[in-house]
Amino acid sequence: MNDSARPDDHYRFIGKPLPRKEDERLITGKGRFTDDFSLDGQVYAAMVRSPYPHARIVAIDAARAKAMPGVLGVFMGADCAADKLTPIPHDPVPKTRYDMKLHAPGGGAVFIGPQLPLPADKVRHVGEAVVMVVAETKAQAMDAAEAVEVQYQERPFVLHSEAAMRPGAPVIWDEVPGNILVDTYFGNPQATDAAFARAAHVVARDFHIGRVTGVPMEPRAALGHYDAASGRYTLYAGSGGAVRQKSELAAVLGIPAESVRVLSHDVGGNFGTRNRVFVEFVLVLWAAKKLGRPVKFTATRSEAFLSDFQGRDLVTKVELALDENGRFLAMRATNISNVGARCVSLSPLGKGAGLIPGSYAIPAATLRAVAVFTNTMPTNAYRSSGRPEVTYAIERLVDAAAVELGVDRIALRRKNLIRPKDMPYANAVGMTYDSGRYEENMDWAMAVANWKGFPARRREAKRRGKLLGLGLANYVESSIGAPREETRIKVQPQDLSGPAHVDAIIGTQPSGQGHETSFAQVLSDLLHVPAESVRIIYGDTDLVRVGGGSHSGRSMRHAATLFATAAVALIAKGRAIAAIVMDVAPESVSFSNGRFVSRDTNRTFDFLELAGEAARRDLPDALKDGIAVVTNHEMHDPVFPNGTAICEVEIDPDTGGVALTRYASVDDVGRCINPLIVHGQTHGAIAQGVGQAMWEQIYLDPDSGQPLTGSLMDYGMPRSDTLPSFKTEIAEVLSPTNPLGIKAGGEGGTTGALAVVVSAILDALRDYGVRDMPMPATPYAIWTAIQNAKARKAAE
Q1: Rounded CA separation 342/339 (Å)
Q2: Longest C-alpha distance within the chain, in Å?
Q3: Which of 77, 52, 63, 58 is nearest to 159 (CA)?
Q4: pTM, whole model, 2 decimals?
């Protein structure tokens, strides 16, 4: 941590690298993942999925399937319609006060493309569920699904967003004849045009940040139960937001929200892909009532590749205007998001829209933000939703400007980075960055990566016949997410079930981020109780009534803000109870060094001791619930984590093989609650971004629309032996937007990774004149670029 960014350090547990207490449970087989749950009498569901990207459903013949052993039911779109199931109420437009406000062409509401549990008219992407078969065993259900005969009438399809926008393109939804569901302009076009008119240099590039998928460790799964006596439905399904899913499931089923309980405990991989309701979640609940048996669905790995919500897929066209001294004057951008066959989330488009200038002081900018329907799987928010894409664009553009102007890329960045004295900084498209020391991050990262030693390393690599390249990318990202959150905290006395402890129920739930540890650290410091005495309770909608779940780096910021507010109320309540217990005047009681004390007695209590005393007394009505509070808030102000990533790669020019030799980052997360957890999050986030830059790609055959990356044999993933040891540092420039100064620490590693890896590869290939490298930068792609460059040179 650099001294200039050091926060107050008077906390006992905040800022300490406590080991995660949930890990022992998870690594000893005591996790509660979806497939760990089984219910008496449960049966199994299998889906019949569309083999076509676009086709009308002509007829479905399920007679043979219904007659097969163990089959209990075969359900299709007509059955859903008969039972009046409604579309999943996806609400894709962000709702916080300072979001970039997206709208349909010409203004107005966005048509999202209704997602019924099973379609009755036509299919709009390969892998769309058409029929559900339920049987006594999973094998019987899968065999019967194979026996269902669906007659399709194929229709023209379109896979790429730009192709979908062209006149005459196949129409996905009749309600949107041009396939464009969002078309919104931001910025100041007059100022931007004037700046471009007087610019000494203009640099322009077009990029496609391709489509990837989350590849969770546990494939998507759901277990549905219906209790006829109470009329209640229960869903077991890992997700990023149980409260939201409860209300959406109830809406589809046409029942009150209180009739649905969602249990979402441990999540075997998310990063945004599981934050929205899947059709199978509805279907298992619906079938459980119809059959009077619990129904379980678990996707195969290939099904997950076909039907999980996917990520990225943005086309961005960017231009940068510079003056004769290399100062940035203005920027233009057109961002085109491929939302797939239905619009599940506009978070990637909206969050990216506000950050197109990146970390740089660009006085004027204009942006056209477009969302387009295609015959592909819907895209959803995916780790650092929308920010890696726009960071890739601006950082690649700055590198290109340095090459075209013949100037040093670091000097060009240094000249244009936003200064600390300008914070808070309103960028040219309307986002106001709260805090940050961008140039310090860059200098620190360069020192960590031994930037100065690179020329010697490059010469040594050249002697071995290798090409060494060095990349750098600055980033700024935003963290906000759903604005509402609630916590219910109670200090529980010792009883037969165990020692005294603090229960904290909260709506933001983990999917691997270590909330059970880090949340406890915050409450421990605020209440002066041992961290191990704090229990974080989440993921059960019978307990959690309000909450936005885990996404957009919101969890710790919301939780800590709630806890800080709740602590004040808990102390006030504790003082009132302590006055009764100690038989002193309430105004004489204070809370000092973790104990309730009074000048009128030598008796003192900490929170845990006081809870035991309170349990033994007949308290007034206002204090009957003991030391307990309910705290709600709405948080609309975004925060802006930021940092710098540096990557070094070595390329074999004979094969195109590329190896990452070093990777360093500095990430400003605001106040860091647990550096051990933050470093782990950073490592995983880097790996996720590097994966897309070098290996990961959802590839669809342009002639048939078929996904050709439908298994782990086809879809490249980072592994421990393909990544170097990371050198990561944490900067702590406190945000003024919340009591503890927290920003976010889970997504920064991904945000800069795409840009920095490609930057390093292009730096290694610079002597060949290679100026562009589409992702993923596979060995074949690199080898091809080298061969093409040699051919061009030979032809000169």
Answers
A1: 7
A2: 97
A3: 52
A4: 0.95
